Amino acid sequence: MFENLTSRFDGIIKKIRSKGLLGPEEIEEVLKEIRTALLDADVNLKVVRAFQEKIRVRALGEEVSGVLNPGQQIVKIVSEELTSILGGESVKITFAPKPPTVVMLAGLQGSGKTTTAAKLAKWFKGQGRNPLLVAADLARPAAVDQLRTLGSQVGVPVFSEMSDPIAVAESGLEEARRLGRDVVICDTAGRLTIDELMMKEIGEISEAISPHYTFLVVDAMIGQEAASIAETFHEAIEYDGIILTKLDGDARGGAALSIREVVGKPVTFASSGEKVEDFEIFHPDRLASRILGMGDIETLIEKAEETFEKEKSQAAMERMLEGTFTLDDFLDQLHQIRKMGPISNVMGMVPGVAQTGQQLDGEAEERRINRLEGIIQSMTSLERAKPEIIDGSRRARIAQGSGTQPAEISQIVKQFREMKKMMKKAPKGPKGRKSKKQKNRQKGGRTSNKGPIVPVKKGLSLPGLGEDVVKEKLKNLDLSDLDFS
């Protein structure tokens, strides 16, 4: 969603950093470009003006004057103010001292409310809770069946009955108490437009079950209109936070940047994909960092730790260092990468990708990975274990089975062979590399090995994930040894 805005901010930041001194005229020029970029992203005009004024006051004040690097200081100010309009801090969910904790969802029809209910249930399961879904949307045909299907996917039971929405909500709460469920998520009916009947029904459900949290589900694709809808709901019912859906869409991002300032309610969760896994706590500072092209390494590490099977990944790493890593291992790593979400989202979290001008076409990257998976899956188990046996006739068969060209198979086999050679020569140790202390000792000549030191080839690795600080956090995860190029 934020690719265009990130690109615009990247250009603005480069211009700021290139200037030695920043006087009032230069700062006004920067503010004008920021204003244009935000308005093009469909950000509310009042929010844009407030954002500009805050930066102006800080940039023209003592905060910037006299510092050694005024450009860097202004970038810091922009980052902090962007974080501020996004909400400042992420919301922490607390649980009722006497279970169950009751959550009610409200929103317009088509905002993704029912899917969000299932995603929220999965998130609560990840927190060690035992949720129950209550299908109180009896107005939309098949809404109950949809929630039951989604509930089975995430392993959460769904309660509903043929009565009225208020009775369903009350009975669902009683069922949760009977079953010992500690979280209740109630999905309510939406309408194509806000109407009196809808608001009355939501109000009555709220009175019946006294939710600890009421979340408004808003479609981020509708831009500034999202803030207007949130404002209208705010006038009718009291809700605690907003869940933004479809953040992976092609909208310009104005909803995420406007809604907190306009309504005064925090964005609590964000949904960035169709899968039930594409759901997370909304972190304003991380999103601001991504918009400014600085990546989001914290979320990337969290996703990797959630997705990668530690023991399996460690075993694969050991085989790689021993030179016995196979294409089956590589295919398994690809599958784990795919579980982290759309590849464009994953790459957007890598620091420096936007700053180096590497604007990714998400669909193109997905197609490239699909082709790579198709090629490997078209090989026999023996060919995946020993790709060196692939000759001309085998290449032709694999190419025909995967819908590719024999030259592509040759290229993959060659790259894989070179990687294995380099890994065999790599220094063996806890992290597959010598420490700085060891290297310093080698310079003295007392503990140096004979022959040249062979550098570890990055080969199949995501850009930006080779940094020591990231590897330290990822520890045994071998995400750093994968590449899509």
Sum up the structure in keywords.
Rossmann fold; 3 domains; Four Helix Bundle (Hemerythrin (Met), subunit A); 8% strand; alpha/beta; eight-stranded mixed sheet; disordered C terminus; 485 residues; 434 Repressor (Amino-terminal Domain)
Quick synopsis:
This protein is of the alpha/beta class.
Walkthrough of the structure:
This protein is α/β, with parallel strands linked by helices and 485 residues long. The protein folds into three domains: 3-85, SRP54, nucleotide-binding domain (Four Helix Bundle (Hemerythrin (Met), subunit A), Up-down Bundle), CATH 1.20.120.140; 101-294, P-loop containing nucleotide triphosphate hydrolases (Rossmann fold); 299-481, Signal recognition particle, SRP54 subunit, M-domain (434 Repressor (Amino-terminal Domain)), CATH 1.10.260. The chain is 54% helix and 8% strand. It has 21 helices and eight strands. The longest helix is centred in the last third of the chain and has 20 residues, at 406-425.
